[in-house]
Amino acid sequence: MFDTHGDLVATTLDETSPRDLDATETPAHQDGIRLLGLSRTGPEVLEVRFAAPLRVDDTSVGTLLVRMSAQELLDVTTDYTGLGQTGETIIAALDGTGGVDPLNEPCHLVPATFQLTVTDQNDPAAHVLRERRQEIFSDDAIDYRGEEIWAATRFLPDLELGLVVKFDANEREVELQELSREMFFSALALAGFAILAGIILAMRIAGPIHQLAEVAEKIQNGDFHVRAPVRSEDEIGKLAQAFNQMTDRLLESNRKLQARIDEQQHDDTPDD
Amino acid sequence: MQLTLAVIWLVGGGVWLLMGGEILVRGALALARRARISPMVVGLTVVALGTSAPELVVTIQAALTGHPELAIANVVGSNIANVLLVVGLPALIYPLACDQASARSDALLMLVVSLAFYVICSDGLIDRLDGGILLAGLVVFLALQARTEREIPQHSGELPIVLRLPTRGATIAFLIIAGIIMLPAGSTLLITGALTIAEELNVSTEVIGLTIVALSTSLPELATTLVAAFKREADVAVGNVLGSNILNLVAIMGAASLASVRELEVSQHLFSLDLPLMLLSAVILTVVIFRRGAVGRKLGAALLGMYILYNYLLYSGL
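YS: structure for the whole thing
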């Protein structure tokens, strides 16, 4: 808590804590609670700072500065659900000198020589802090490792932060290849079933027709006593039935004809 | 979901292998007839090796794609299934006579080859020299077959009686090309399905090879034998099994170890359980054949029981 001169009046920090609070961050005459910003105060330690004016009967008596952990924001970046093998979330802020400072630890190893500036054309983190708008990158985006990535960005205006969710373009391709491989294998397997079903169906239809043809051939050669087997009630069965009836009638008329010939021959024979 | 897909791939692969093998043999037989090659030579080469084409492509592909455990497991598992399941199951329906004239020499050869394979595996590796020795066994087998002057070997039972072979050159070429395409396609599907199932069920590739893959490639034999048993003509089954078991070891394992880039490693598990069981089943079948007996319902049930117990042991991780 600071008075109107900017002097520290009271604090919850103990003596050994770093006294980096600065009353000048928030002029006492401003109204309402203001967000001052986020800062990284150590590895994986993120803090958010608020300021509010202290008034007694409309008279400004000082400023209240509140510093609290923003761990929940960091927790979001360590949740890799749905981000595959290479995905990660990065929260980035400008460091005041044109550099881009990631507030959370990237999950991949950062090259020692790596330094990102806001003018960097290909990095989505630099892009979102420069352009201050949300965008989706599906090509030409390169991350801090120099890897080609797919990314979605969002600018958080109140906090002046850039949020980047990204994964390696390569991983998406691997997944797509895997999916197309699975689909190809499934199609191939199903095609096998379809061909087999076709063969079985064709054999079921062609088999009886083939038998019928064999019977017809025998009749053609003069054997009127063969009959086609009737195994079903369907069209093929009816065909075989009709075929057998036709053969019966052929046999019958043949028999009648033969009888008449015999009779004629008998009549023609002169009686002795 | 992944498991369902894998099962579809595996079964689909089996269907492609079955059709591919059948089509290739038909095409090759028709070609041999057109080229006026003696039926005996055709019987010994095309039919004998052609009907084992599914096992051959699956084993070689497994060895080439860095899954030697799957290659060996397929062959060993297939030989175990051939005796315990392909002989055991039909025997429950109708007793299988084992008094064919050629059965004795084939049984003896199977026993010798199985024993030789066990010795070859005893150093934990199957190298190219071992592959050469196995292929030499193939030459002996073919020579023995030729001496017995059988035009079509007994183990051609996988192939339904070849009727109405095509005569047109274009049809023959189509059959051969289609067979050559379908076999590796089926093999790829079968292996991918098997590896995915192993991963999903959290069992070793070797166990899947010894059971599911071996069974898939032995299904044609089982189907033919079962159909024959229902018609009370299953005697041919014993001949089929003998021929198939010899060819699996000498031709398929021999070719796979020659084709493989590295030596094929034999796991301790294979050496302590699966290979001894393969030997034991070979001994049982040989004893029955030499006593000129028949595989009746009791022995059939015992063989089948052994197969079920063996599968239980594999999957319970013992």
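YS: worth flagging: The beta strands of chain A are 2-3, 34-42, 45-56, 59-69, 88-94, 100-102, 135-142, 148-156, 161-168.
IM: good catch. Also The mean pLDDT of chain A is 82.
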